[in-house]
């Protein structure tokens, strides 16, 4: 396998636009844990090996446990995640699998737990990693 195209070099303005959204997400009060859970879970669903590799390493460096990382794809069946994290993970899955739509109950649960600004930032973080996943998968980025 080899990388197909380097979008950053071929279309730098478009790449910078997505990078700008990433920089915005990094500037928000979203916790590091929440950002990492969103990035890893969406990347698992999308099958982006490059992003899974990068974000699990980042999460471990930030203090996330191996146990929680390994259990992330089965988060509903473990006691390892808080109510807030569960709401964020459910929303991450449904926004990532958007053709199935976001259920009212999923959105309402997240809205009940998260304030409006934090909820907006979570949704933007989910959208951002999905954009990166699509770049990684369509260009065949290879994890190092």
From TrEMBL:
Q: Which Pfam families match?
A: CMD
What are the record keywords, sorted? Oxidoreductase, Peroxidase
What terms describe the molecular function in GO for this protein? peroxiredoxin activity
Q: Which residues form the Carboxymuconolactone decarboxylase-like domain?
A: 19-94
Superkingdom of the organism of origin: Bacteria
NCBIfam families listed in its UniProt record:
ahpD_dom
Q: What is this protein called?
A: AhpD family alkylhydroperoxidase
């Amino acid at each position: 396998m080899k990388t197909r195209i380097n979008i950053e070099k071929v279309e730098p303005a478009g790449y910078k636009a997505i990078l700008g959204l990433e920089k915005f997400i990094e500037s928000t009060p979203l916790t590091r844990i929440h950002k990492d859970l969103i990035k890893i879970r969406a990347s698992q669903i999308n099958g982006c090996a490059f992003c899974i590799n990068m974000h699990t390493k980042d999460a471990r460096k930030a203090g996330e446990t191996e146990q929680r990382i390994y259990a992330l794809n089965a988060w509903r069946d473990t006691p390892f995640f808080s109510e807030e994290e569960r709401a964020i993970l459910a929303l991450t899955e449904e926004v990532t699998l958007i053709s199935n739509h976001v259920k009212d109950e999923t959105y309402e649960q997240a809205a009940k737990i998260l304030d409006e600004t934090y909820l907006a930032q979570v949704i933007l973080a989910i959208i951002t990693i999905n954009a990166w996943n699509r770049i990684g998968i369509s260009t065949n980025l290879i994890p190092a």
